[in-house]
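Sharing a chain and its predicted structure for anyone who wants a worked example. Both blocks are below, sequence first, tokens second.
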Amino acid sequence: MADGAIPWFRGHFADPWDHVEAAMGLSIAGEFSAAEKAYNWLAQKQLADGSWWAAYRDNEIDNRERRESNFVAYIATGVWHHYLISKNTEFLVRLWPVVAKALDFVLSLQSEHGDIQWAVDTDGQPLMDALITGCSSIYKSLECGINIARTLGVECDHWVEGRHRLGIALRDKPERFDRTWESKARFSMDWFYPVLAGAITGKSARVRLQKKWDEFVVTGLGCRCVNDEPWVTVAESCELTMALVAAGEGSKALKIYRGLHRWQDSDGGYWTGYVYHDSAIWPEEKTTWTVGAMLLAADALAGLTPASRLFTSVDLLDAPQDAEGFDHLNQLELGGSQR
């Protein structure tokens, strides 16, 4: 859109998480100006507490029922991803206050057990439960936020501690998730997202992916969104591709990804999913974030950009010994708003 928003498709709403997913696709494609415009749009929409509403349409709030923690955190992943590719330090400096406020908002929702509440309501009251997929996404965003801070020579020990505690919750405290609603285990993302985000690695990651492989993967088609519906989805298949690369299962990753191009339409877009019992495309939507996921998976497999390993490895930068070389940061209020 002219204002920088990236809706799911023309005429639909934009949400902060999928907006960032699509923006990362722009960075991979070399569309740096468009990607930066997308991040600037988020900066302009950021609320005083560092968060965003669940959805926007035509430059107005479309859903003010809640603000989701993983949606808010994801800007850190997008900003770090763009910097890795563009090497634009000015962009990193300019977006730093936005990232800092967003991650501080998210960590304000962390419980004493390490899990992070999934959202706040209209009045800003925490909705007291946690999602495995959402917390996994936050775990990766905290890694990216820490790397941004360390690149800029800024102290971020509270993020390091928050990420450490969140990782323990994801690996060792399953009782902290889905406490007040039916388990989300039917969703494939709950299965592979802890691997995709780097919370579970190595042999443990391979064991986890193998355990539910037959439950979620349909040979020759891709990854199901949920285990009780005959529906494979392109974005989940792309994310599983990256999780497999992260776990050292490159051949499986290639096999899944190569089969996804059948879902590309003549305009370059990819259909969201396919109901194989009915041999039908469903829904009849080609979303921007699905294309973003396709580009991210292609980069992970082929090493197209300097950000290709972002979702397939954990790479925490060392804390700087000093902040030399970043005197220009002294001109900023590092915790301030970009609005």
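Comments welcome. Residues 331-339 have pLDDT under 50 and may be disordered.
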